[in-house]
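Exercise 7. Given the encoded structure of a 212-residue chain, write a plausible sequence.
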């Protein structure tokens, strides 16, 4: 009964989650592009686009909450579904904040390690985009959902290692204290973005457990 109610054709929540995932993909792409240039105008332009995506994400979260309020669900299922939507919205916020930091700090260079962290973020988003449509059939897609969630977790672990290695690198190799602080702060934000991706995957795991 819960399963039928969750995906009742006239009140399907999955398309809203898919649109949130699309916004994440667009935002992650713009974020990665920012790591490939030192042009301040490009940073400003991409950040502006990401801010607009974040605003659209807020509207989607509101739409999701309104839609789910019309569906008869147990409080646990309602909570877990809403948590997934909120987690994706938070991820979008963190990406925007990371882009804004780059736009504000204007570092003298963007090390390959920062570029790698941004690519990890984008790979997490791609995995999440593949994961969301699978929720249309949670029971039959449990294995596939779990594999994608595991992929996000693995990427987040890679980001942790990359972050720790990079912090050690800049402390030993960067002579300019001001620039070193910029790089460290940027790396922290980028690593936080990968944590946000993992949080989305973890929220989906909890949702799936409701149907096992």
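Solution.
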């Amino acid at each position: 009964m819960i399963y039928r109610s969750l995906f009742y054709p006239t009140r399907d929540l999955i398309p809203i989650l898919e649109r949130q995932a699309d916004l994440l993909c667009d935002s992650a792409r713009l974020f990665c592009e920012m790591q490939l240039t030192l042009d301040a105008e490009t940073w400003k332009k991409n950040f502006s686009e990401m801010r607009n995506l974040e605003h659209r994400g807020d509207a989607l979260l509101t739409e999701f909450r309104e839609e789910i309020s019309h569906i008869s669900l147990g409080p646990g299922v309602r909570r877990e579904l809403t948590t997934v939507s909120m987690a994706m919205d938070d991820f979008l916020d963190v990406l925007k904040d990371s882009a804004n930091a780059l736009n504000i700090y204007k570092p003298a260079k963007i090390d390959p390690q920062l570029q790698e962290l941004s690519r990890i973020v984008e790979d997490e988003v791609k995995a999440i985009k593949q994961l969301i449509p699978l929720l249309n059939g949670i029971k039959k897609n449990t294995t596939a959902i779990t594999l994608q969630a595991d992929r996000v977790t693995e990427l987040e672990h890679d980001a942790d290692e990359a972050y720790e290695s990079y912090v050690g690198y800049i402390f030993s190799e960067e002579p300019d204290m001001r620039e070193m602080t910029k790089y460290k702060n940027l790396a922290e934000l980028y690593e936080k973005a990968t944590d946000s991706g993992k949080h989305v995957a973890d929220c989906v795991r909890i949702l799936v457990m409701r149907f096992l």
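Remark. The CA atoms of residues 118 and 148 lie 19 Å apart. Students should compare their own answers with the one above.
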